[in-house]
Amino acid sequence: xxxxxxxxxxxxxxxxxxxxxxxxxxxxxxxxxxxxxxxxxxxxxxxxxxxxxxxxxxxxxxxxxxxxxxxxxxxxxxxxxxxxxxxxxxxxxxxxxxxxxxxxxxxxxxxxxxxxxxxxxxxxxxxxxxxxxxxxxxxxxxxxxxxxxxxxxxxxxxxxx
Length: 161
Known about the structure:
Elements: H1 12-35, H2 45-51, H3 89-105, H4 112-123, H5 131-147, H6 155-158
Helix pairs in contact: 3-5, 4-5
């Protein structure tokens, strides 16, 4: 019995209804996002006003050290803290390195989105031959976080510090 291509799922007739259905689903998703109520701020109005004052001192997100005006990096811990670090070609590399370092040595919230995000971002880098090495250290860190041993980096790294 020969296979009839007009009944297949990829036939032009099936695409005629699938494309508008997909467009309608995409439109419904966009409308749902636009009409979603924003979440309340986790702080009170006094804290909001204090943070947005012109004389408020910015601090490092990693070590909470007060920062000078327009910094690119924290003078204390070296974290990338500049407002445009992720957009500038040279400092972007340091921001990306901080992400990879946090994946292999840091503590982060374990869920599917963060782990898949670390894995996918590593695939997009030009040093693709190092991806298996990075995945090994990432998964080792995930196992360390699951055990609850997140107080200090692995012993092999403490000797180099």
